[in-house]
Specification:
With about 210 residues, this protein is of the alpha/beta class. About 30% of the residues lie in helices and about 15% in strands. This is DNA (cytosine-5-)-methyltransferase.
Length: about 210
């Protein structure tokens, strides 16, 4: 079911490679009108959705572009359990496309991906009972508010298949099934990233 639009700031964000919408939800909570794009069906995606190629989908008309290019080419787990060469690097051409667009952008990926770590976030920084590190590179280069350091206490949930439902719920991805949540990122991350973008935009306009 598509959630009703809530646009107090009147801004539109395009979420490329959106999956089931964990990061899309963060932008929604920050007041953005969200449109998601993924090359696979996403029946539980809660906003406007297009099944399409993220490298060719039109970018016009959006105020912010978010992209979570597939991480398998860079992820350590792929090297442990598979072959990284079997997964194409979409991050490099994807970044080039965003840079050429002239639209503010955000790229999210695993910490081992070749991203400039403008923001390195963990669930424990937001009071979530999960450890899930993700790097964000942005067109405005970071800065802004500071977050507390990670707190990896003993009761923090680690991802494991036998506890997938509890992990998904702890991330705040309660509308997803367990399979969808395996690739998801907590909405709290982009809720915070969105506020950083809005602050940066206001500072630029004031200057």
């Amino acid at each position: 079911m598509v959630l009703p639009l809530r646009r107090p700031n009147g801004l539109r964000v395009l979420d490329l490679c959106c999956g089931a919408g964990g990061l899309s939800m963060g932008y929604h909570l920050a007041g953005f009108d969200v449109t998601g794009v993924d090359n696979r069906p996403q029946p539980n995606y809660p906003f406007t959705f297009h099944q399409a190629d993220a490298l060719t989908f039109p970018l016009d008309g959006f105020d912010l572009i978010h992209a979570s290019w597939p991480c398998q080419h860079f992820a350590r787990v792929t090297a442990w359990r598979g072959d990284r060469t079997q997964h194409p690097d979409l991050l490099t051409p994807g970044r080039e496309r965003l840079q050429a667009s002239g639209i503010p952008w955000v790229i999210e990926n695993v910490p081992e991906a070749p991203l400039r770590p403008d923001y390195l976030l963990c669930g424990s920084q937001f009071g979530l009972n999960v450890r899930r590190h993700r790097t964000f590179e942005t067109s405005w280069g970071g800065g802004g508010d500071l977050l507390p350091p990670c707190w990896h206490h003993k009761k923090l949930l680690a991802f494991e298949h036998k506890g997938e439902r509890a992990y998904a719920d702890a991330m705040g991805c309660t509308w997803m099934n367990k399979t969808e949540a395996r690739q998801a990122v907590p909405p709290a991350y982009t809720h915070w990233i969105a506020t950083q973008h809005l602050t940066h935009t206001r500072q630029e306009e004031a200057a």
